[in-house]
Structure formats: structure tokens, C-alpha cells
TrEMBL record:
SUPFAM superfamilies: LCCL domain, vWA-like. Keywords: Disulfide bond, Glycoprotein, Repeat, Secreted, Signal. This is Cochlin. Residues 167-352, 369-558 form the VWFA domain. Signal peptide: none annotated. Residues 130-159 are annotated as: Disordered. One of its GO terms (molecular function) is collagen binding. It holds the Pfam family VWA. The keyword Aminoacyl-tRNA synthetase does not apply. The gene is COCH. Residues 30-123 form the LCCL domain. Gene3D superfamilies: LCCL-like domain, von Willebrand factor, type A domain.
């Protein structure tokens, strides 16, 4: 009996003596070069040798499971997670496996894998072979490798709809009340909405939570950044049954879904779209309050409202008005049933993309326009001027600066004025802080009044239609040589849209604290209560921080 010790042949493992031997040939296997983000589903083979590049960003991998991974996982991420390769890359062998349920979450080798309730295909990985020879059970001559590497093109990540920036959780009804058939119709509608949103790296991100006896997060914001993957993930969600417990699910979503680890982005509105078939089986008002406290905009999509005969079974007939972000009609949406819902997709998408209407996202960290009016006069001196810039930077870096969030501008003044940068010049915190550090000292006289008028006209003027609150922070070291009271009062009266009591309420929630930096210069830390909501409006506030270490409304005082 002859024994063949090769594990990679089509020959029998053994055969009787005297029987013609199975012919063996040897071929050189060349791994397929892939990228850091090639997924298991991109490799359409039952078994394949691939080559992972080095220095992949560990925190950007999407990996679902442990040992057995969902096919939507990154191959290289899974290989590092399992310890097959290090972050320097290397050859990996991937084996396709059937789909399964309950992919587990495990931290290994610097990668946190994620849970996934279900996926249609899986894979596992082992150490690969780079350019080695393997036996094949065919009577052929040794095959020569093809010239060059075989490159597999991976799907390019799409930026998405940049005009629709939102982090959205679809909270779907998975109760016995909706049933399996309407549950599938609900998923179809959510898929259509997701497709029209324009999901992408720079557009909206979406996740899914199912409300049932116990709420379940099906997938998070960071799991998928393409509409194709999201649609597939929605399709894979299974019906859970039980009571709807919408209030319980909404509270769970507000508290557990919108976290940095789960992919929530700073400065981007947080949105929950709650689908209710009929009416909720528990109290939803308290959950709405919790969501608002967490800065989450709650939309209610109600389907098949209760008929008069059913109202006696409804715990609170005004549940929609009490749960939404604002009871103004914008955050509630109704469909008569789950059939013929295509015409309802676009109007809902338009609401979800209207970031300026997301009232519950607005805090004093992300909904202000702050212009710094910086004294560049000779009496300040270069060293103190640098301290001024540090002071301005310390304030600016506490805000969520983005094209739809907080905006920063700076003007330097002496007898003349120079716009260092306007509100629309920079939309990231990094760029704003960099340009502040590089402001050059002008030197000259001090004309604060003229500088206020210049800033109101040239910096705040173009922002008149902005939904953000406007603040002017004046950093100066002493007496102005021109009138300040008139320009300050004019700036204060620049917009009369809001009543005086509303304006005073906003002022009362902006806390300041001053600390000496020099005999003439002060600094402050700008503190906001995390959950404080600033309502829409455009009243200009004029602030200064003088040498008496107090917050001074400039329109009532002359420096």
C-alpha cells in the first residue's frame, strides 16, 4: 500500500500496490492581492489564497464574529483578529462557509469584532502560502505562474449625499401586532427610504433597531456605509414577535445606539425614525423625554391609526405628539397602510435631510456662530497677543465645528480691521485652530467701535439666514479711542426676530469663567450643559471679557 501525504490533491489518499499510480503535478499558487477593506463576499470562491497589505488602520475594520466571520467582514481584519497575520500583512487562506445566526463580539489582537444577529454567508481564515508549490492530481506538466499579480478590484466607497448629513436609526416594529407579512412590507419601505437617502461616507449613516418584547440593535451606524450593504442587511433581519414595547425600544436606542464606539459622528444630527403599526403597547412619552435629553430627534411614522372602536385599548391617544422631538407637525408622518407606500418615501427623506429643522440636536456646542474680535493694538504687545490667540483657540476647540454645526470667524483690529477668516472659510476644528495659531500681529491704535460695525456688516451680514445663534466675543486689553456704545447697541439690535425674554434665556444658559493671564488680559472657559437646547433664531449677542474678570454685555458698558 502506497501512502500519499499531500493534503491538496485529487488522488486517493492510498491505493493498492500494483495499481498504476496517480500522476502528480505541482503548480505554484500566487495569492490574490487585496485591499484592507476587501470583504469575504467580494471573493467568490469556496477557497482562495489572498495577500493582505501592511499597515491597515485597525480602528476602521468592520469584523463580525469570531473564528467564523460574516461574509460582510473585512478579510484582512478577520485575519488579524484571529491572529493569522499581524498588521504587517501577509498571505491568508479564506474558506467560504454557510450563513449562520448570532455572530459573537470578541476583542482580539487590537480589533473589536461586532455582533450580528444573522447573515447569509460566512468565512473563516487560516495561514496562507506565498508562492509555494502544491500537488494536484492531474497528469500535467508543472504550470508556470502568470506574469504579474492578479488584482481584485474592490468596490469604491461612495461619499454619498453630502447635502443630507444625519445619523439615523430606523426603529422598526417587530411585534405580533404587525405580523410577519406586514413586517416584510415594513422592511421594504425602510429599504426604499435608505436607498433614496444617499448613504455614504460623507452622507447619511443608518442603523436598525427592532422593537419587540425586548429591543434588539440589528446593526449600528458604522457597520455599513453603502446603500447596497444596508439593503442586504435589512433583508436579513428576522421577525422577532412579542409585544411592541415601543417606549422601551426608543429609550434603549437613545441610550445605547448613539455612541462614538457605534459610529456616531460629532456635529451630525442624531435621528430615530420610529415605525408604529397601530399603537404602542407601553408608555412612549417618557422615552421621548429621554431621547430629547440625549439630543436625539424623534420622528414617528404611524401606520393604520386606531379606529374609534379601538381607542379604548390605546394607553394614550396623543402618544405621537408626546414622543416626537417637537409637536409642530414636522416630526410626525402618517401612512394609511403598508401597501402602495412608494409615494411616501420622498417626503420622508426630505424631512430626514432637513438638518436645519433638527431642533433636538441643537446645543450651544453645535449651533452657534462665534466671531472673535481680537485687539491687535500696540498696547497689547506680541507676547500677550500670542496669549490672546491661545485664549481664542481654547474657546474654539470646545465646539463641534462643521459645515452644519458651529462656525468660527476671526477679525483683528487696530484703527483698521482685517478679517482673518470668515464663517464659511473652514468647516473643521483642525483647520480653524491651525489658522488661529498663524494669525499675524498687526500693531496700531485701538478703535473697538469701528471694529464692531465692520464685523457685524462683513462677517455676520452674510450669515443672516443661518439657523445658528450669533455671538461676538471681543478680546481687548483696554480703552477704545472711539465710541463703543453706539456700534454695540446697533449690533445688539441687528435682528429683532426673537422676543427679549427668549434672548435673555439664551444668555442665562451661557456660563463664563475668567482667569488672569496678565495685568491686562483675561481668559475664560466656555461651558455648556450637555443637553441644553438652543431654539432657532438669529439674535446677535455682543460679549466681552474685560479686566474686571466679569461677563460684560458690551451694549450696556463702555470699555
Amino acid at each position: 500500500m502506497k501512502i500519499l501525504h499531500s493534503e491538496e490533491t485529487n488522488c486517493p489518499v492510498s491505493w493498492p500496490a500494483g495499481v498504476a499510480e496517480c500522476s502528480l503535478s505541482w503548480v505554484t499558487l500566487i495569492p490574490i492581492a487585496i485591499t484592507c477593506f476587501t470583504r469575504g463576499l467580494d471573493i467568490r470562491k469556496e477557497k482562495a489564497d489572498v495577500l493582505c497589505p501592511g499597515d491597515c488602520p485597525l480602528d476602521e475594520f468592520s469584523v463580525f464574529g469570531n473564528i467564523v466571520y460574516a461574509s460582510v467582514s473585512s478579510v484582512c481584519g478577520a485575519a488579524i483578529h484571529r491572529g493569522v497575520i499581524g498588521n504587517s500583512g501577509g498571505p491568508v487562506r479564506i474558506y467560504s462557509l454557510p450563513g449562520r445566526e448570532n455572530y459573537s463580539s470578541v476583542v482580539a489582537n487590537g480589533i473589536q469584532s461586532q455582533t450580528l444577529s444573522r447573515w447569509s454567508a460566512s468565512f473563516t481564515v487560516t495561514k496562507g502560502r506565498s508562492g509555494t508549490q502544491e500537488a494536484t492530481g492531474r497528469a500535467v506538466s508543472t504550470a508556470r505562474p502568470a506574469t504579474g499579480k492578479r488584482l481584485k478590484k474592490t468596490p469604491e466607497k461612495k461619499a454619498g449625499n453630502k447635502d443630507c448629513k444625519a445619523d439615523i436609526a430606523f426603529l422598526i416594529d417587530g411585534s405580533f401586532n404587525i405580523g410577519q407579512r406586514r413586517f416584510n412590507l415594513q422592511k421594504n419601505f425602510v429599504g426604499k427610504v435608505a436607498l433614496m437617502l444617499g448613504i455614504g461616507t460623507e452622507g447619511p449613516h443608518v442603523g436598525l433597531v427592532q422593537a419587540s418584547e425586548h429591543p434588539k440593535i440589528e446593526f449600528y451606524l458604522k457597520n455599513f456605509t453603502s446603500a447596497k450593504d444596508v439593503l442586504f442587511a435589512i433583508k436579513e433581519v428576522g421577525f422577532r414577535g412579542g409585544n411592541s414595547n415601543t417606549g422601551k425600544a426608543l429609550k434603549h436606542t437613545a441610550q445605547k445606539f448613539f455612541t462614538a464606539d457605534a459610529g456616531v459622528r460629532k456635529g451630525i444630527p442624531k435621528v430615530v425614525v420610529v415605525f408604529i403599526d397601530g399603537w404602542p403597547s407601553d408608555d412612549i412619552e417618557e422615552a421621548g423625554i429621554v431621547a430629547r435629553e440625549f439630543g436625539v430627534n424623534v420622528f414617528i411614522v404611524s401606520v393604520a391609526k386606531p379606529i374609534p372602536e379601538e381607542l379604548g385599548m390605546v394607553q394614550d391617544v396623543a402618544f405621537v405628539d408626546k414622543a416626537v422631538c417637537r409637536n409642530n407637525g414636522f416630526f410626525s408622518y402618517h401612512m394609511p397602510n403598508w401597501f402602495g407606500t412608494t409615494k411616501y418615501v420622498k417626503p420622508l427623506v426630505q424631512k430626514l435631510c432637513a438638518h436645519e429643522q433638527m431642533m433636538c440636536s441643537k446645543t450651544c456646542y453645535n449651533s452657534v456662530n462665534i466671531a472673535f474680535l481680537i485687539d491687535g493694538s500696540s498696547s497689547v504687545g506680541d507676547s500677550n497677543f500670542r496669549l490672546m490667540l491661545e485664549f481664542v483657540s481654547n474657546i474654539a476647540k470646545t465646539f463641534e465645528i462643521s459645515d452644519i454645526g458651529a462656525k468660527i470667524a476671526a477679525v483683528q483690529f487696530t484703527y483698521d480691521q482685517r478679517t482673518e477668516f470668515s464663517f464659511t472659510d473652514y468647516s473643521t476644528k483642525e483647520n480653524v485652530l491651525a489658522v488661529i495659531r498663524n494669525i499675524r500681529y498687526m500693531s496700531g491704535g485701538t478703535a473697538t467701535g469701528d471694529a464692531i460695525s465692520f464685523t457685524v456688516r462683513n462677517v455676520f451680514g452674510p450669515m443672516r439666514d443661518s439657523p445658528n445663534k450669533n455671538f461676538l466675543v471681543i478680546v481687548t486689553d483696554g480703552q477704545s479711542y472711539d465710541d463703543v456704545r453706539g456700534p454695540a447697541a446697533a449690533a445688539h439690535d441687528a435682528d429683532k426676530k426673537l422676543p427679549q425674554n427668549h434672548q435673555a434665556r439664551v444668555e442665562a444658559n451661557i456660563q463664563t469663567q475668567a482667569v488672569w493671564l496678565s495685568p491686562r488680559l483675561t481668559t475664560l472657559s466656555w461651558n455648556c450643559h450637555e443637553n441644553h437646547v438652543i431654539h432657532q433664531g438669529n439674535t446677535l449677542q455682543v460679549l466681552t471679557f474685560g479686566s474686571n474678570l466679569e461677563y460684560i454685555p458690551l451694549y450696556n458698558n463702555v470699555l
